[in-house]
Design goal:
The protein contains ten helices and no strands. The chain is mainly alpha-helical.
Length: about 240
């Protein structure tokens, strides 16, 4: 099954829903916490305040989803890059468009964040970290990107991560367009119930299933809500 076939007709909504349910059963509490942190972080980014919320949001994405090679200095550079903007309130809400303009928006936003992180002192071009942070801030607009997603889609990076990410965006948006025509049940019920969030769960598990000799990159956290308590955020039961 090739990625191009998947992007047009190949994967079924029942396959995606099965993986989404598997993912949510394992990581559902962590997902709820990240969604709470995402909503709080958006407000902080628009107001450019409460740096500690943005730091916690970024740290949990990095540590919970096994993004390797990111130092404390890189984290701080990313926080500075996020707080420097720009941000528009309309970027955060649900959208229905997966056309060329939407694809350009996703690639441009990630490229710009990658560049800002380096300008703020980051050591590397952080395509995976940048895409995952923006995916959680804008789960209707920006697909996540990592080696497992590339593997599931059959995309090679060849060290040109911008081109590889653009191809991931194209194939994920093609999948989202096709599956959305089948209804919304394949996305599951856990918020954010967006096409791109559901497809990230599906692709992540599909990619991992092809690496049986490796342990999962995400470890189930026993008390994910602790960060919300530490920050005094009252959305532990959001869901």
């Amino acid at each position: 099954m090739t990625a191009r076939r998947e992007g047009r007709v190949g994967v079924s909504e029942s396959e995606v829903l099965r993986r989404v349910k598997e993912f949510d059963c394992r990581y559902g509490r962590m997902e709820r916490v990240l969604w709470c942190l995402s909503k709080e972080a958006r407000t902080c980014l628009l107001r450019k305040d409460r740096r500690e919320v943005v730091e916690a949001f970024l740290r949990k994405i990095r540590s919970w989803w096994g993004i390797r090679g990111v130092s404390r200095a890189d984290e701080q550079a990313t926080v500075r890059a996020l707080l420097s903007g720009p941000w528009e309130p309309q970027w955060f809400g649900p959208v229905e468009d997966f056309g060329e303009d939407a694809r350009d928006f996703a690639v441009r936003r990630v490229r710009e964040l990658v560049g800002r992180i380096q300008r703020e002192g980051g050591r590397r071009r952080e395509w995976s970290l940048s895409s995952k942070v923006l995916h959680w801030l804008m789960p209707w607009r920006v697909p996540a990107y990592d080696a497992l997603v590339r593997k599931a889609l059959g995309v090679q990076s060849n060290d040109d991560h911008e081109a590889a990410y653009a191809e991931v965006v194209r194939r994920v948006f093609d999948l989202a367009t096709y599956l959305r025509s089948k209804g919304a049940g394949w996305m599951g019920t856990l918020e954010p119930a967006s096409p791109l969030r559901a497809l990230d769960k599906y692709l992540w598990l599909e990619g991992y299933s092809r690496e049986r000799d490796k342990p999962p990159q995400a470890v189930v956290v026993r008390d994910p809500e602790r960060v919300l308590r530490d920050l005094g955020l009252g959305c532990e039961s959001d869901g």
